Amino acid sequence: MKITSKTTIGEIVADDYRTAAIFSKYHIDFCCKGYRTIGEVCRNRDIEESVLIEHIEASKNSSANQSFDYKTWPAETITDYITKTHHRYVAEKAPIILQYLNKLCGIHGAVHPELHEIFTIFSKAVLDLTAHMKKEELVVFPFIQQMRKAQKEGNHLETPPFVSIENPIAILKQEHETEGERFVRIAALTNNYVPPNESCSTYKAAFLLLQEFEKDLRKHMHLENNILFPKVIEMEKSLESVRENFTQI
């Protein structure tokens, strides 16, 4: 794809995930605020537009593995991947990080009081993410599966209790914003996940796990905000005509 000042960040990362590293380097949120254009970001952050685009293009031409071309996947494959990869990651890693942070607060909290705030923020994040993921797994993702089935079979689809898929998506995207802001704060409190000099192994492990957790979460949110959600909104619109035709029979 040709990148211009009007190209959105989300479009760029959806086209080639290797570009996410460039946006992370510039501390540009590509997951929760992927709707912003290159021109808008460069103006707000005082970044030379041509330089940023050059770096983005270089990352696309790098030898690094692009991984999967997620944007070509059907919606039901993406939901399955998110559940089995990113939801499972949160469920497995969150208790370990909480255990480490709790231990650090007990041992180093008096000298490093920021640990208590980190523990509090991360604890809230885990609680909210757990509810968020359940909402996806029990409500949103099953409806996406129903839409996809109706699309394949050419059938109409009954109007759901939430009327349109855009309504729960709006809520999910707002919750993504909240988590993104939380991890901006955690990154600041941890000096971008750099532990103090002469830190113990638990300190280093906790910060490393937090950094990996944020990286996984941002990819998780990117897949939903920039690829899955636009895809299913368009799917719903295509099904609306089928529903209208059915009601006229």
UniProtKB/TrEMBL annotation:
Highest taxon above the source species: Bacteria
Keywords annotated in UniProt: Cytoplasm, Iron, Metal-binding
Pfam families assigned to the protein according to its UniProt record, in alphabetical order: Hemerythrin, ScdA_N
UniProt-annotated location(s): Cytoplasm
Keyword flag Iron: yes
Domain Hemerythrin-like: 83-232
Listed NCBIfam families: FeS_repair_RIC
UniProt name for this protein: Iron-sulfur cluster repair di-iron protein
Species whose genome carries this gene: Flavobacterium artemisiae
